[in-house]
Amino acid sequence: MLISFLLWQCIIAIPLSCFMVLLRYGSHRRSFNLILLFVPPSPMKHPFAIILSLLLLSFSAGLAIVIPDPLPKAPEPIDDILRLQILLDTQLFGPGKLDGRPGEFTTKALKRYQLAQGLQETELEAHSIDLASVPEAYSTYMVREEDLKFVGDLPSQPSAQSKRKFLPYDSLLEFLTERFHSAPELLEFINRPLKLCALKPGDAVKVPTVQPFLIEELTEIPKLPEVLEFQARVIKIDTREKLLGLWEGEKLLASLPTTPGSGHLATPPGTWRILGITQMPTFRWDKSVLEYGVRSESYYELPIGPNNLVGVMWIGLNRPGIGIHGTNSPQSIGRSASHGCMRTANWDVVRLVKHITQGMTVIIEGPAPEPRPIVIRKAEPAVPPPEPPKRGFFQRLFGGK
Predict the structure, then answer these.
(1) CB 310 within 8 Å of CB 327
(2) Average pLDDT value for residue range 117-127
(3) What CA–CA distance (Å, rounded) separates 88 from 226?
């Protein structure tokens, strides 16, 4: 009996388990849920066979990930990729904005996480990370009346922004995208036909199951306290790869996508030190600094808020004007350039500062700022002095001037 049971598992149950995984994950539409029970003949004689088969199926499904070919049309998310993004984000190996789509920073986050866990680095479709810790990709958030405190009119010009006391989100949709680390296109797709541009308190919104970014818990702190046990940790930033890594000896603790400067305003390579960390900073907006790196007397002091240009956190380095900070544009992280600093999403930087401290070393690797071209203006030809007015006949005759 035991031999027949083992033969059944090896010849029938295991192949069929794999086939079930292919059936389940071969379709990108997650409404296709197929449950098969692989039970040997005379199941009553082997009641544990059902349990073993189900465990086998669950294990196989937990490890499997299939990227449909062709991909579903954007922005439709792929459930397995979204669950992987949630897992990586939860472990502070940021894939960038959650969108459920394959992409550069999801792959980079995966490989860095595999490195940290001592696993073989693979591409998305070949990874073997168990996604059982993310059984559900989505949860429901009820929009609250108090959420409206952080939403309001947002001027576009620094001159007008400087007259405000707080720079809020411009919509509840922006509030939710940052709270749940998401691309707006993802939230709009999974909540169809709900119009997210017209949200109001009491509306139920489907969101990814991530640790929410809680703007309401952030207060103004000019300088976060020093944590001595973090002093030996090192932040390493690769501006070419647009990645920030937090290291403790040879152990990679976290990895986040970042937007460094480039060209004339490239983030300066070298070994630096954290001078201090400010929560909910203001920002001195100086066009001369942003464009040329030279401080001027023409500037605007921008107030705190999630839409401040440096976001909700400033990690200042011992290089004047250079730091690691949040952003008012998380959707562009890794996809654009800054003015010399290193931008990260607000939801990432607020978690990063819980693992770092003043006095830590920051190593920046990458190209140095490009020298600005010297513009030599051609000398203007000298303008000859005007000729004296000609004297008329009578002026010459009578000596008039």
Answers:
(1) yes
(2) 94
(3) 28
DSSP 8-state secondary structure symbol assigned to residue 5: H
**SS3 assignment, position 144:** coil
Helix (H) or strand (E) holding 111: helix 104-116
Mapped onto helix, strand or coil, the DSSP state of residue 274 is strand
CB 53 within 8 A of CB 17: yes
C-alpha distances in angstroms, 156 versus 247, 292, 306? 38, 22, 14
What three-state secondary structure class fits 48?
helix
What is the tens place of the pLDDT at every residue in 302-355?
999 999 999 999 999 999 888 999 999 998 887 655 556 899 999 999 999 999
289: left (phi over 0), alpha (psi -120 to 50) or beta: alpha
Question: Is the pLDDT confidence value at 261 over 80?
Answer: no
Is residue 123 within 8 A of residue 114, CB to CB? The reply is no
Domains and CATH numbers, the chain: 2-63 (no CATH), 138-217 (no CATH), 228-365 (2.40.440.10)
Q: Check if the beta carbon of residue 127 is closer than 8 Å to that of residue 106.
A: no
Give the pLDDT band (50/70/90) at residue 269. Answer: very high
**CA separation, residue 372 to residues 82, 102, 243, 378, 379 (Å):** 43, 38, 26, 18, 21
Number of other CB atoms surrounding residue 213 within 10 Å: 23
Residue 164, Cβ density class (10 Å: 0-12 exposed, 13-18 middle, ≥19 buried): middle
Q: CB under 8 Å to 139, separation ≥6 — which residues?
A: 206, 207, 208, 209
Cα(234)–Cα(231) distance, integer angstroms: 8
Q: What per-residue confidence (pLDDT) applies to 57? A: 46
Work out the angle at residue 177's Cα, subtended by the Cα atoms of residues 99 and 279, and round it to the nearest 5 degrees.
Answer: 120
Partners of 345 in the beta sheet?
none
Residue 252's Cα: distance from chain center in Å?
18
303 and 166 Cβ atoms separated by less than 8 Å: yes
Give strand pairing partners of 252.
247
Tokens of 212: 């929410």
Question: Cα–Cα distance between 341 and 325 in angstroms, integer?
Answer: 8
